[in-house]
């Protein structure tokens, strides 16, 4: 049942406010994150010296957001490793390394094997899985289920944002275990997390505006997506989504790195999506955007809030994102990028839910 939408992907995008709520709400007690039901001991969260996230594809991109959160808000070093590469790089994991395996299906063999390897090295482990009772859930010491419900479209949307929701909760639980935040800081963070569904609804109401933005990309051969920090992490996922279902070549690039690399590939024919949501990075991001504009690029700007911009005319499109605290902005941005990929694929007449050569679950290494 596609819920009246032409494809499951659209239905699953629209479900996000609800399933985020269903993932977050049961894990809040007295305004604080709570993993008693999962049995996760605070001692484990307090004692690890580093964290290693293992995952593939979209789940790995969720891990990258988790890395930013945990490093900046908790101060623990986090590595995010592609599960398929993990064992072949002589990984340094031991009982002081908390391993977090992230997987929608819970059956991805690369992730499962990497997790088993880490457990043999003595690492404590938590998995974040969507499918109840899946192999990865069974192979890890503790499991936190995302309550996204069945995800049918091959390109992941609601599984990804519910993985993020769990990572927000886990970060806050680490702060408790390590006695890091003030009551005020915890309260503000948890209130912001609970505001995510309403903010997502707000973005979903702008579907048609986002559809018009997607239309400007229909005939593009290449697309670039640029941003820094968390904006870059979310663009890696947005770019993957566009590639997966529209077959347009897209590159997510850290804006500061462009000038050291492939800026020469950006021409007047290349749409560039720029995301600017992090206050402390804003002025640098805007000056990197000027560099591509001076090469004639048509820049689609996704920016937080209503602030005035110099020369509104030079932007190909501007989308104003609802305002959240910086660390939560990936949530509204994800929706915009998912919808852009969706509409490009839809308007090209492609099979959005079943892109060629891609399987929902991959059980070969
Ligand atoms: C890929 C899927 O094969 O596996 C991606 O096509 C997915 O959409 C990746 O992100 C990882 O899957 P899972 O189930 O481990 O999250």
TrEMBL record:
<feature type="domain" description="SIS">
    <location>
        <begin position="40"/>
        <end position="180"/>
    </location>
</feature>
<keyword id="KW-0032">Aminotransferase</keyword>
<keyword id="KW-0677">Repeat</keyword>
<dbReference type="GO" id="GO:0004360">
    <property type="term" value="F:glutamine-fructose-6-phosphate transaminase (isomerizing) activity"/>
</dbReference>
<feature type="domain" description="SIS">
    <location>
        <begin position="213"/>
        <end position="355"/>
    </location>
</feature>
<protein>
    <recommendedName>
        <fullName>Glutamine--fructose-6-phosphate aminotransferase [isomerizing]</fullName>
        <ecNumber>2.6.1.16</ecNumber>
    </recommendedName>
</protein>
<keyword id="KW-0315">Glutamine amidotransferase</keyword>
<keyword id="KW-0808">Transferase</keyword>
């Amino acid at each position: 049942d596609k819920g009246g939408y032409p494809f499951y992907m659209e239905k699953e995008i629209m479900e996000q406010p609800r399933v985020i709520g269903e993932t977050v709400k049961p894990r809040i007690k007295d305004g604080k994150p709570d993993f008693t039901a999962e049995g996760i001991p605070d001692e484990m969260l307090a004692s690890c010296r580093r964290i290693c996230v293992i995952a593939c594809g979209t789940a790995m991109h969720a891990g990258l957001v988790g890395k930013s959160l945990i490093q900046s808000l908790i101060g623990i070093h986090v590595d995010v490793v592609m599960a398929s590469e993990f064992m072949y790089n002589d990984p340094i994991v031991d009982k002081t390394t908390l391993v977090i395996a992230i997987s929608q299906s819970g059956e991805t063999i690369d992730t499962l094997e990497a997790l088993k390897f880490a457990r043999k090295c003595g690492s404590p482990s938590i998995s974040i899985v969507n499918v109840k009772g899946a192999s990865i859930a069974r192979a890890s010491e503790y499991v936190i289920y995302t309550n996204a419900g069945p995800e049918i479209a091959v390109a992941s949307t609601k599984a990804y944002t519910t993985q993020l929701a769990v990572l927000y909760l886990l970060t806050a639980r680490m702060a408790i275990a390590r006695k890091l935040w003030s009551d005020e800081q915890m309260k503000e963070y948890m209130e912001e997390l609970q505001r995510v569904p309403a903010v997502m609804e707000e973005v979903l109401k702008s579907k048609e505006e986002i559809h018009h933005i997607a239309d400007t990309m229909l005939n593009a051969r290449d697309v670039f997506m640029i941003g820094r920090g968390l904006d870059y992490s979310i663009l890696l996922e947005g770019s993957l989504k566009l590639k997966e279902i529209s077959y347009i070549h897209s590159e997510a690039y850290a804006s500061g790195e462009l000038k050291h690399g492939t800026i020469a590939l950006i021409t007047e024919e290349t749409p560039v999506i720029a995301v600017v949501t992090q206050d402390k990075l804003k002025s640098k991001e805007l000056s990197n955007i000027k560099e591509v504009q001076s090469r004639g690029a048509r820049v689609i700007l996704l920016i937080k809030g209503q602030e005035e911009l110099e020369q509104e005319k030079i932007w190909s499109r501007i989308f104003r994102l609802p305002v959240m605290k910086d660390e939560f902005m990936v949530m509204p941005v994800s929706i915009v990028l998912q919808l852009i990929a969706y509409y490009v694929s839809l308007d090209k007449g492609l099979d959005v839910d079943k892109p060629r050569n891609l399987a929902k679950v991959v059980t070969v290494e």
